[in-house]
Structures are given as structure tokens and as C-alpha cells.
């Protein structure tokens, strides 16, 4: 199963015809069809932050544990934005597939819900809002396309219960779309920023520790009720992480800062760099002293 959130590659099994919500498709998948489970045994599933929340709760793991046990990292873009995919067997089968089908079906990822559709958000130059277009995925092993049932894309997505997933994924996908639209104006992201993107997108355990730390609270002006929600609930925490990335990536003032907090962080950063510079000078001076000692001993 292959379903991409990014631009369609040159070689692809997507039918290159743009489809809209009212477009018709013929497709049906059910237990008993000759290819049942075939797509799950060739899984290539990119996960969104909301996918991870649903799946880690389903299997009773923390986000950190789930990422370690059930995902593999990959680079989503040329500049290295980190993504995660579902881990598979050596043969490429999803770890959640059984002879009776998907063992986590009601919490299956967004890509699985959309199959056999690919979808892509595009934003025209000068436009503020993106448009979503759909593409049909036809893989040789899939016999669902031979079924006689016909319905619109809108009807199919309603049947697959994608609405909540789309709503939860929307702002996160917009971050990547905006970054791609900005192109070289954003530039190559430093390693610390890439790690921050990974934490805010996928690892809610680390993000929770980060936003509840004294250092964070000393920098941002938030009501105590907000911190209580971030401590207890995953969805508000995920949404907060997306807001924080908007502020970090695009300088959008999505989270109020305490008075003088920015100046304080700059001062602390300068103090750290000065301490490192002094340590490097001391190390260099010690190396010079040792060299002269060795020469004197000769």
C-alpha cells in the first residue's frame, strides 16, 4: 500500500488525473475478495501526529515506546524534515495485519483510510488557502477496482471516516506546505530545529516534559489551565506543538511570550557562547604551554 502526502514522484502507481470530491470511483474492499490483505503485506505508510496518538493509545504504549517499537524514521524532504513510517516485517508486511484483516482497524492511519486514493494540497501563488486534489492509486495486486460498486470520493471518504483525521492533520500538513512554498527563503534547517520538529510532531512524551519545564514556563505567558490541559491531554498537546513550530519556523506569534523573555534568552545564549569561547581559549593556551614544556625538556 502506498499513499503519499507529498508531490507525486515521476514513477508512480497513481493515475495522473486530478479528481475532486464529486468525482466517481469504482472500488470495494472486503474479506473474501481475492486480494484481501495484499496491500497490508506491501505496506509503505507515512504517519501523521494524529495517527501516532490513535495507534499508541490502541496498543497501550507511550509515544516514545510506540515510536521505538512500531516506526522507522525517514526524510520527508530534501532539507531533511524528519518523518516516520510504520515498521514492517522484512517482507514488507504491516505488523498489525492478521488473517482476519487489520487488528487496529478503527484506529488505522490516515493513509489506510484514503486508499486507493492519493491526495495532495496545493497553494497557488498569491493565494492564502490551499486546494486539495485527489488521485487514484492502482496497484497490480488490487482487485477492488474491478468491483461494480461506484460512489463519489466524498461518499467514500465519509465511509472511511476521514473527517476527524483530516481536521487533526490539517495544520501540521500546512506547515510542510508553507515550508515548501517558501523554498530557499527558509533555508537548510539546523539539527536542533529538526529535532524540535520531530519532538513536536511525534513524541508527545518529550514534548510534554519540554512545555512543563521551568525554562519554558519562564519564557511563555500561559494560563495555568492551559498547562493542566497540556499535562493531561494528548490532542491539545499535539495542537500546541504545531503552534510552537509555527512560531519557531515562521516567526508567527502563536504563543504569547513573557515580557523580556526573548531578550533574556538571547543574553543566556550569549553567555553560553562566551563561556564556550573562554573554554576553547583556555584549552588552546594549555596546548601551547604543553608544547613549550616538551621543547624545554628536549
Describe the structure.
This protein is of the alpha+beta class. It has a domain at 14-181. Helices cover 46% and strands 13% of the residues. The chain contains eleven helices and nine strands. It has helices spanning 49-59, 63-70, 110-114, 153-159, 163-182, 191-201, 204-211, 214-217, 224-232, 234-250, 261-297; strands at 14-19, 24-26, 71-75, 82-86, 97-98, 101-102, 117-122, 131-137, 150-152. The strands form four sheets. Strands 1-8-7 form a three-stranded antiparallel sheet. Strands 2-9 form a two-stranded antiparallel ribbon. Strands 3-4 form a two-stranded antiparallel sheet. A hairpin with an 8-residue loop joins β7 (117-122) and β8. It is elongated and about 90 Å long. Residues 2-12 have low confidence and may be disordered.
Index terms:
298 residues, alpha+beta, 3-stranded antiparallel β-sheet, two-stranded antiparallel sheet, 13% strand, elongated, disordered N terminus
Described by strand count, sense and barrel closure, the largest sheet is: 3 strands, antiparallel
Number of helices: 11
SSE pattern: EEHHEEEEHEEEHHHHHHHH
Average residue-wise pLDDT: 84
Rough outline? elongated
Widest beta sheet: strand line-up:
1-8-7
Alpha carbon gap, first and last residue:
71 Å
Number of strands: 9
Low-confidence stretches: 2-12
Q: Look at the helices and sheets and give the structural class.
A: alpha+beta
Helix content percent band: 40-55%
Strand content: 5-15%
Question: Rg from C-alpha positions?
Answer: 24 Å
Amino acid at each position: 500500500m502506498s499513499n503519499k502526502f507529498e508531490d507525486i514522484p515521476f514513477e508512480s502507481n497513481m493515475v495522473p488525473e486530478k479528481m475532486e470530491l464529486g468525482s466517481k470511483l469504482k472500488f470495494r474492499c472486503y474479506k473474501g475478495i481475492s486480494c484481501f490483505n495484499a496491500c497490508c503485506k506491501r505496506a509503505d505508510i507515512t504517519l501523521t501526529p494524529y495517527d501516532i496518538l490513535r495507534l499508541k493509545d490502541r496498543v497501550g504504549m507511550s509515544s516514545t515506546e510506540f515510536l521505538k517499537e512500531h516506526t522507522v524514521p525517514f526524510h520527508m524532504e530534501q532539507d531533511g524534515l524528519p518523518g516516520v513510517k510504520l515498521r514492517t516485517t522484512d517482507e514488507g508486511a504491516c505488523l498489525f495485519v492478521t488473517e482476519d484483516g487489520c487488528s487496529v482497524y478503527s484506529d488505522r492511519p490516515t493513509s489506510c483510510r484514503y486508499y486507493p486514493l492519493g491526495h495532495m494540497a496545493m497553494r497557488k501563488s498569491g493565494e492564502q488557502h490551499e486546494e486539495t486534489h485527489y488521485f487514484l492509486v492502482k496497484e497490480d495486486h488490487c482487485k477492488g477496482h474491478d468491483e461494480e460498486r461506484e460512489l463519489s470520493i466524498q461518499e467514500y471518504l465519509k465511509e472511511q471516516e476521514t473527517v476527524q483525521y483530516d481536521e487533526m492533520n490539517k495544520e501540521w500538513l500546512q506547515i510542510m506546505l508553507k515550508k515548501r512554498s517558501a523554498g530557499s527563503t527558509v533555508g537548510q534547517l539546523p539539527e536542533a530545529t529538526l529535532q524540535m520538529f520531530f519532538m513536536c510532531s511525534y513524541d508527545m512524551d518529550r514534548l510534554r516534559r519540554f512545555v512543563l519545564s521551568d525554562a519554558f514556563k519562564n519564557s511563555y505567558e500561559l494560563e495555568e489551565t492551559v498547562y493542566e490541559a497540556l499535562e493531561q491531554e494528548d490532542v491539545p498537546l499535539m495542537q500546541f506543538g504545531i503552534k510552537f513550530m509555527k512560531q519557531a519556523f515562521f516567526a508567527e506569534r502563536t504563543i504569547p511570550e513573557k515580557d523580556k523573555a526573548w531578550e533574556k534568552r538571547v543574553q543566556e545564549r550569549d553567555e553560553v557562547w562566551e563561556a564556550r569561547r573562554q573554554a576553547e581559549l583556555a584549552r588552546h593556551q594549555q596546548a601551547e604551554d604543553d608544547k613549550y614544556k616538551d621543547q624545554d625538556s628536549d
